[in-house]
């Protein structure tokens, strides 16, 4: 049986300090696609097909850059000094258990970093890969 999920599409950048939330629309994941799930509650967070890069670092170590996430909400927008410069980001939170999973890039500091805008960091220590095959 397909797994239900709520879609999280990259929103337009919100005004500073305004929280944003995940869409409440219900959809279904394919049974045979690998997914990343929340380490705390096992909620599906992202399809492996949405993986852009494994060469990123989060607060707790290695991280994945993802095109989109599901079953998540965003915290307040803030400016954060990261390894590649000062970025505007919003924390990425599991919609089910409220665990911190990483962040979303809202605005990058310069042209060479803009490919990150609207994409998500999933910290490897906070998610589990489920192969589904």
From TrEMBL:
InterPro entries: Yippee, Yippee/Mis18/Cereblon, Yippee_fam. Keywords: Metal-binding, Zinc. PROSITE patterns: YIPPEE. PANTHER family: PROTEIN YIPPEE-LIKE CG15309-RELATED. It comes from the Eukaryota. Residues 34-131 form the Yippee domain. Pfam families: Yippee-Mis18 (PF03226). It comes from Cryptococcus amylolentus CBS 6039. Residues 1-31 are annotated as: Disordered. Coiled coil: none annotated. This is Protein yippee-like. The keyword NADP does not apply. One of its GO terms (molecular function) is metal ion binding. Belongs to the yippee family.
